Amino acid sequence: MQIIDTHTHIYAEQFDDDRKETITRAKETGITALVLPNEDSRSLNALKNICKTEPDYAFPMAGLHPTSVKSDWRKEISHIEAFMSDVKCYGIGEIGLDYYWDKTYIAEQRAAFEYQLKLSAELNLPVSIHTREAFNDAVSIINNVGADSLRGIFHCFGGNVDDWEKISTLSTFYVGIGGVVTFKNSPLRETIKRIPLDRIVVETDAPYLAPTPYRGKRNEPAYIRKIISEISALVGSEESAILSVFYQNAQKIFNLPVKMG
User: Fold this and answer.
1) Distance between CA atoms of 249 and 80, rounded to whole angstroms?
2) pTM of the shown model
């Protein structure tokens, strides 16, 4: 069994007391690689440190999270680009649009998102996209930049069938399924039955969005087994079969230097 957690923040301070043990549990679970999205310039050092400590296991992305976008977003991205010139990155992320928390910088969010999409196309790197109450705008900007020149993941996908239908037209984009699929009242539990397995990757978004029965507690990569088990039950496929597909999907996106056993 081999699993890639395509989105986890184990460099976050929530893991400062037991990061080593958390990674050990992840490995024991069958996770062979962790993909780590960045948030802003403040998280770069922590991200760099863990990737130096676990060079064959933790693989960084770099990007400016939409909730970190302010009037100085260009300065923030300059720090991120400098980081990318120093550290090999496997994607641009976590980027996107978030209109839920604060609408003050919507114009700046759109500009930063478009800039980072163009950067991903220039560098031939995938993107990890965060959207909240901004799904249609995100898809529109992707199409304006040129979907054919891009590839990536709609991280933490929890949308309805209509949302999936829009993503399905973007042939090089996948959906990241996390703990939300285990939530009893989530519409994703029905939507996922309509999504082909070859367009899905799994993620934890640790320390956030822990799956049932850990909901409300700190999430960690080892809990990905709960997510996989739930997907297996909902779509009616054996875990071994979907694991193989999800692993191959993740490798199509990131091309990580790890191999299936």
Assistant:
1) 27
2) 0.96
